[in-house]
Amino acid sequence: TLGTQTDYRDGEAQTDPYSPEYVIPSGSVPELLTLATLIWGRGLPAGLAEVEMIERAREKRAWEAALPAVDSASQIAKRRKMMDDMERKEWAFREQEIEKLQEVRLEVLKKLLQRREENQNELDAKRLDDHWQNHQKAKEEKFKKIQHDFGLMLRKLIAKRKNVMGKLERRDIIKEYTDFASQTYAPLSRIGYFPDNHSERYVVKNFYLDTFAGLCELEASLPDSVTQVKIKAPKPKYTATKTGFIKRSAKLDVDLAKVHQ
């Protein structure tokens, strides 16, 4: 009634292929037992190299079976000659294996050197690109500065050209007062005008407000309606009786007037 789920696939949980027990009949040596050194992952499944090794083992067993017996001097010499030939053949085969191994190592070394050279080339290209970007940025900044200086000098030359002969121009009052950036509204300090100095001249000075005699004269000139206030008592809104109570009808009239508003 319960289900489980593992973090591994079935293929990851498989063990090596099973090798059953075996029994060898007496007097027989199966060829399959010569391959007992091959195990799964080391020789199995068999490839081209394993097949060549098996063929060499068969040839060696056939050669050992074909060796003459050591029962006479001629047979011993023949046997020694065959063994020398086989030894030379084995040494030649070992040399071929060594050469093949050296070729494989040489190919691996070539690939490593090629990969290192490619990485170095990429690093050099990136470094050159960064250097080029920095030069381009410095060039753009210098170009912007030259353009800014060019505009500044051009405006100065245009301003000098307006009065190239040194002639005086008449003052245009209308133009000065219509332009809020003119000297009339915003005088410059570099021509000798400091707006913070002499600020007291903008303070309003009046004889009628600063002196007592002026205040007396100002008060004497005002009409009586300003100095002598007449207050009228307001009329009561409600109709009251002689005892001071408000009549119910008067209160009802006031409430109706409020509702009507």
From TrEMBL:
<dbReference type="InterPro" id="IPR032840">
    <property type="entry name" value="CFAP91_dom"/>
</dbReference>
<keyword id="KW-0966">Cell projection</keyword>
<protein>
    <recommendedName>
        <fullName>Cilia- and flagella-associated protein 91</fullName>
    </recommendedName>
</protein>
<dbReference type="Pfam" id="PF14738">
    <property type="entry name" value="CFAP91"/>
</dbReference>
<keyword id="KW-0963">Cytoplasm</keyword>
<feature type="domain" description="CFAP91">
    <location>
        <begin position="4"/>
        <end position="156"/>
    </location>
</feature>
<dbReference type="GO" id="GO:0005930">
    <property type="term" value="C:axoneme"/>
</dbReference>
<comment type="similarity">
    <text>Belongs to the CFAP91 family.</text>
</comment>
<keyword id="KW-0206">Cytoskeleton</keyword>
<dbReference type="InterPro" id="IPR026720">
    <property type="entry name" value="CFAP91"/>
</dbReference>
